[in-house]
Amino acid sequence: MVIGITGGICCGKTTVLSVLKKLNFKVFNVDDISHDLLNKDEVKEEIKEKISKDVFCDNNIDRKKLASLIFSDEKKRKALNKIMHKRIIACMIDIISKQKEGLTFIEVPLLYELNLEKYFDEIILIYVSRKEQIKRIMKRDCTTEIKAKDMLLSQIDIEEKKKLSKYVIENTHSIESLEKDIKEMVERIKNECN
Ligand SMILES: CC(C)(COP(=O)(O)OP(=O)(O)OC[C@H]1O[C@@H](n2cnc3c(N)ncnc32)[C@H](O)[C@@H]1O)[C@@H](O)C(=O)NCCC(=O)NCCS
Ligand SMILES: Nc1ncnc2c1ncn2[C@@H]1O[C@H](COP(=O)(O)OP(=O)(O)OP(=O)(O)O)[C@@H](O)[C@H]1O
């Protein structure tokens, strides 16, 4: 069974994935796939040509610079999406096709934006309010409220994602209580889907 872990920026998807890994489940993160792709020559060439040479440092992509550019410029973001998404989805489908038994969890930030629901047996949304997302982005990235809000605008609003989701984990308390909620959610899905 393959379960998609999704949510908005800074809702805690990777934190949840780490807990699942600690619990000995098989986990994959689509963000790792995109980081690997950004090291490929063909992808770098396309980014140089269609986005900007200024996001490079010694022929390597500076992800912070690229992020800053795409979250403030919709055209550039669409151009990057066009280069990256088909490749990311192909890698994701390949991983899914290799899962034969047990539970596998895959973190896919833009699962709803890219209409990827059909690839997953179930989907868990990691939720915090928009206000909390902004607070966590500002703290983690040492950035301004305006920039944090720009990042949110690049994704479907978290309340919309909540409406689309049968399984929701609220990540507003301590990591200990998150771990308890994750264990309960896994049991619930196992019971409901057997
Ligand atoms: C912009 C990049 C260079 C930033 O890298 P960085 O290491 O700083 O952040 P990371 O990759 O961990 O992404 C952090 C979060 O940003 C959000 N995000 C990333 N890319 C996008 C995007 N194109 N649109 C909206 N949100 C995005 C996601 O919530 C993601 O979890 C990188 O995310 C990237 O190459 N993005 C394009 C590929 C993509 O769409 N990835 C998400 C696939 S589902
Ligand atoms: N329960 C929590 N309480 C307080 N802070 C938290 C909690 N869970 C996660 N965080 C913090 O919020 C930030 C984002 O967490 P995490 O990286 O897990 O989110 P994400 O959804 O994977 O982010 P991104 O969309 O950027 O990939 C991190 O700085 C993390 O330490």
UniProtKB/TrEMBL annotation:
Gene3D superfamilies attached to this UniProt entry: P-loop containing nucleotide triphosphate hydrolases
Example of a GO cellular component annotation carried by this entry: cytoplasm
Keywords for this protein: ATP-binding, Coenzyme A biosynthesis, Cytoplasm, Kinase, Nucleotide-binding, Transferase
EC numbers on record: 2.7.1.24
Domain of life according to the entry: Bacteria
GO MF entries: ATP binding; dephospho-CoA kinase activity
InterPro entries, sorted: Depp_CoAkinase (IPR001977), P-loop_NTPase (IPR027417)
Gene Ontology terms: biological process: coenzyme A biosynthetic process
NCBIfam families (UniProt xref): dephospho-CoA kinase
Stated role: Catalyzes the phosphorylation of the 3'-hydroxyl group of dephosphocoenzyme A to form coenzyme A.
Protein name per the record: Dephospho-CoA kinase
UniProt source species: Sneathia vaginalis
Upper classification of the organism: Bacteria, Fusobacteriati, Fusobacteriota, Fusobacteriia, Fusobacteriales
Gene that encodes the chain: coaE
